[in-house]
Amino acid sequence: MTTATLHKTVFHGLHLEHGARMTDFAGWDMPLTYGSILDEHRWCRSAAGFFDVSHMGRLHFSGRHARRFLDKVCTRGILGMQRGMVRYSLVCNEQGGCHDDVLVYCLEEDEYLMVCNASNRAKLVKHFETQRADLAFKMEDRTESTAMVALQGPKAMDLIGRFSKEIPALKRYRFTEKSLMVVKLLVSRTGYTGEDGVEIILGASMAKLAMGMFLKDMGKADGVVKPCGLGARDSLRLEAGMPLYGHEISETIDPLTAGLDFAIKLDKGTGDEREGRFIGQDALQAIVAAGGPKRKLVGLLVEGRRSPRQGMKVMEGDRVVGEVTSGCLSPTLDRPIAMAIVERAVAEGKPALSVDLGRERVGAAITPMPFLKTVR
Amino acid sequence: MSSPSTCRFSDSHEWFLAQGQEVTLGITQFAANELTDVTYVQLKPVGTAVKAGETVGEVESVKTTSEIYAAVAGTIAAVNDAAVKDPSLLNSDPFGKGWLVKLQVADASPLAKLMDAATYDSKHAVH
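Output (structure tokens, whole complex):
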């Protein structure tokens, strides 16, 4: 796709003003970095980072059967969500693999918002149209009519507190709707960095103006907030042990393998009669019945200074026991870290391992995730 | 930003500065920007003979790993240990403190076939 045909978020001009290096991300022209990925990463861990995440899909569901439909396509329980709650869920295929991982916001009993990955949005819309059967609900793709930003870091809540006392009192995975002048903001205490902070969804037309109030000092020498690009977003989520679609989960990697058991309501449809089963439930139950997944996601502390990368083989002695799904030289720990999917016996036995970097092999040890103590 | 006019430039984004029989090489500002933050530098040891087109080492960034090629045959006479210790020098000063190796060459004339600074910069503008 050429630059001219890439989608631009409402903050595109702001990125260029801050000297962003732009990159094609799932058809969107997005900031990779504004100069240094490492600086942005460290700034988000020590102060506050501003991330434009408007490229992420925002699908709105409303109507009598909206909840029932979401319970059909989501692994997590949607029945039982109350207004103001956010839940992380997978959307699975029949084989138990993942179409996507999403956040579901309960706006009202019959009104929900789903935030999905940019790269999976079109696929999900098609999946949902295929699966809606005769359920009575409306699905509206609000991705382009809204914008979304994340404000993340230890100083993010102080900053937000200047505009609202209510928001810093929010629990994790809760949201509130606020008005800032005439702009309606949906503010959730969520994020993808492992830091405290919020994600804000608001109408596209007023977004830049509204955010300007928060960000008027952004990037200045004495400013608390600096813009952070997709490069830092990736290394931050990796340190926080959070999965990335296409790496730790995919159409062929099920969420049990990825250790996302907390997001799967395996007994869905057995208690409350209003609740049906979800797509992929049979397959995931079969995996559990067979003794669990054959492979498991683990965190690795890797020796040396080189970055492990997706696809590199994980070895026990001379035997391949798995492969790296994500890796980087952790900016906070100042050493290489990786996530890898390995044979379950290896994940549980935690033997000495190595990672094949191509010309050399380096030692690696299984470590609990997240790699950092974070607020998640 | 202009690349130094005293250097010649390869399609693979190395710069070469010939001073008599000694050729210093490194990566260009454009390359450093494309790589993003350089996190690791590995260079072949002093005394290694390299043919034209062979690698003298590799650099890794947050995003990717990239090999560094010598456009001229020679023997590695010096490596920049400071850049190995602090790879961010390749981002902050790629034409200066971020140099990579010095080659002792018998014949520096093949460098004349490479791009000059104006040609390189016209193809690879640094924003």
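Chain B touches chain A at residues 33, 36-37, 39-40, 60, 62-63, 65, 88, 91, 127 (CB under 8 Å).
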